[in-house]
Write a sequence for this structure.
């Protein structure tokens, strides 16, 4: 395999990689130090990040420098300003930020501080999903070390830059990964997303200017500041610069989190990184970027993994969480599992989403059980079209609708076969179709 | 009843992290659940409501929104088995069925001896190490049924050791 230069995962395999000593011995905090010692101005940092082309790694791929520049001018708007770090990683298939937080927490703290400096933010909150206990512990220890070393808090490294960083524990709701749901949750409420506008930069946490950034996004900042925008643009493609973390899971020989430049093909990741499809089987389909990105058939495996190419292939780059299905997998069962997830996670504010996710889950379940009706397939499409795009407060409804439309588009014949046979043609004899379904009922 | 002096002191510090007191509610509920038997009793919710200056119903509304908060007392140990897509593709249902067989608990329920609560949970972010389960806050990954047995045997051993130490 071609050896690609790495930076995101440069430190994670060092012994004691989560400690300040190891981080500092390997360039940790050197970008922050250089910004503060050379008297760089916040707008200069934003200019470099803009110039680098860095795009958000939390799923939407929005240009980070531009997002930072949306924060109002503090000379005209004296309100307190906040940064919220979205560490509520919970899109099924996505397990990349966890690696960074557990094994290089200082890298995230440095990235957070650089963003806070650039946006003149006085306090940052890292919203860590509640289940990530090790991430939380490692970040807690790292923050203690950083505070003692004068890297977090008042007058950082003797400069006039001050910023507090607080950890905040979530409690298991997927919707809190949506930026306005996250802010509501951080304020101590149910994670109900807010209608936009107003956008967070104008009216965010406690009604003040706020920016929400993903962990991996911020993790890129120190490297960009140290090595320059030009270096960053030399990695990846024109429109998607730098490296990204790809978590590949499902039916592969070596599932894992790999660091790659944008533009590498899905095939190369599957075959070179993950060792190919497991058990010498063939690939049937894959989700390129997490469960909310449309399933693609195996024929799309040569798609380059960057925002534009995956979009052109009819799906989305998302969080680069590739979920691979081998030839024995049932796409109806996969759809059932995913639809059930969105049903469980809908916050219930919008009726399209509250009702739609439930209907999708029930219809996929009955088709998989062999009780589907012919008209169910068109009903799936009609429901999904009523749920998206842009018909609800947030994108959870879209996240349920998109994979539904994709599965009907690419695998209509398999859905029809379930209905025609009155059973799943792919389920193994040993685990009868009744078993998992009845377990599920016991849960409900 | 009221919050213990220790928790109250902890929460007094916690609320200084935020410009508004209420923001400390969810972290505080976590600490209560950790310290007070693994669940949030009506009394705990009332105590938190009092501390944060909220109506109890408001605190209840928040607590019940979040799947990690439990409104009924769990067993001695809680096993959460992820059943989302990456785990499902690599045998999560078999892991869950095995955990249920071994513990005698049904998904969403507690074993008759009160030792184990078993939960189906959504994606825990261990997709590249699927299937997985979380036992009392620690992830166990890359599971097969033999590994599940090892994990459960360890719990049984430590329970016996505890009983031996404090007869």
């Amino acid at each position: 395999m071609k050896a690609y230069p790495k930076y995101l995962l440069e430190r994670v395999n060092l012994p004691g990689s989560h400690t300040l000593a190891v981080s500092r011995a390997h360039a940790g905090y050197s970008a922050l130090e250089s910004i503060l010692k050379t008297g760089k101005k916040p707008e200069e940092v934003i200019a470099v990040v803009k110039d680098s082309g860095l795009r958000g790694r939390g799923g939407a791929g929005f240009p980070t420098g531009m997002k930072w520049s949306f924060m109002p001018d503090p000379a005209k708007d004296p309100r307190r300003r906040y940064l919220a770090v979205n560490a509520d990683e919970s899109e099924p298939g996505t397990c990349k930020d966890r690696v960074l937080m557990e094994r290089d927490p200082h890298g995230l703290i440095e990235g957070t501080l650089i963003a806070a400096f650039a946006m003149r933010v006085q306090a940052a909150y890292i919203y860590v999903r509640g289940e990530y206990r090790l991430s939380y512990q490692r970040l807690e220890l790292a923050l203690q070390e950083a505070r003692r070393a004068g890297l977090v808090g008042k007058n950082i490294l003797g400069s006039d830059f001050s910023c507090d960083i607080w950890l905040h524990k979530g409690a298991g709701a997927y919707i809190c990964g949506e930026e306005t749901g996250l802010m509501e949750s951080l304020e101590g409420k149910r994670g109900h997303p807010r209608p936009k506008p107003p956008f967070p930069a104008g009216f965010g946490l406690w009604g003040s200017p706020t920016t929400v950034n993903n962990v991996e996004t911020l993790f890129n900042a120190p490297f960009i500041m140290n090595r320059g925008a030009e270096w960053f643009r030399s990695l990846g493609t024109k429109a998607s610069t730098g490296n990204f973390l790809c978590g590949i899971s499902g039916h592969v020989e070596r599932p894992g989190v790999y660091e790659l430049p944008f533009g590498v093909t899905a095939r190369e990741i599957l075959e070179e990184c993950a060792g190919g499809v497991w058990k010498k089987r063939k690939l049937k389909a894959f989700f390129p970027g997490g469960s909310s990105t449309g399933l693609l058939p195996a024929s799309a495996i040569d798609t380059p993994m960057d925002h534009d190419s995956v979009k052109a292939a009819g799906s989305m780059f998302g969080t680069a969480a590739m979920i691979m299905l081998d030839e024995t997998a049932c796409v109806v069962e996969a759809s059932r599992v995913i639809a059930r997830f969105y049903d469980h996670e809908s916050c219930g504010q919008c009726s399209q989403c509250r009702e739609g996710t439930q209907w999708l889950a029930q219809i996929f379940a009955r088709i998989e059980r062999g009780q589907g009706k012919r008209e169910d397939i068109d009903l799936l499409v009609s429901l999904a079209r009523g749920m998206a795009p842009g018909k609800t407060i947030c994108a959870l409804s879209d996240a349920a609708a998109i994979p539904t439309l994709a599965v009907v588009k690419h695998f209509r014949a398999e859905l029809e076969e379930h209905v025609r046979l009155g059973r799943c043609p792919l389920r193994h004899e040993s685990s009868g179709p009744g078993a998992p379904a009845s377990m599920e009922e016991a849960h409900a | 009843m009221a919050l213990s002096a220790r928790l109250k002191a902890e929460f007094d510090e916690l609320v200084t992290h935020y410009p508004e007191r209420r923001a400390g509610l969810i972290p505080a509920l976590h600490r209560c659940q950790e310290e007070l038997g693994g669940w949030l009793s009506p009394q705990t919710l009332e105590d938190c409501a009092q501390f944060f200056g909220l109506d109890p119903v408001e605190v209840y509304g928040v607590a019940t929104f979040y799947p990690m908060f439990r409104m009924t007392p769990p067993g001695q140990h809680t096993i959460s088995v992820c059943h989302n897509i990456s785990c499902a593709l690599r045998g999560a249902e078999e892991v869950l069925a095995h955990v249920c067989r071994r513990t005698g608990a049904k998904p969403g329920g507690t074993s008759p001896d009160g030792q184990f609560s078993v939960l189906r949970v959504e994606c825990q972010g261990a997709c590249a190490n699927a299937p997985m389960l979380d036992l009392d806050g620690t992830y166990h990954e890359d599971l097969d049924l033999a590994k599940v047995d090892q994990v459960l045997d360890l719990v049984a051993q430590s329970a016996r050791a505890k009983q031996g130490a404090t007869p």
The first strand of chain A starts at residue 82 and ends at 87. The longest helix of chain A spans residues 396-421. Strands of chain A lie at 82-87, 123-128, 164-169, 210-214, 243-250, 256-261, 283-287, 296-297, 321-326.
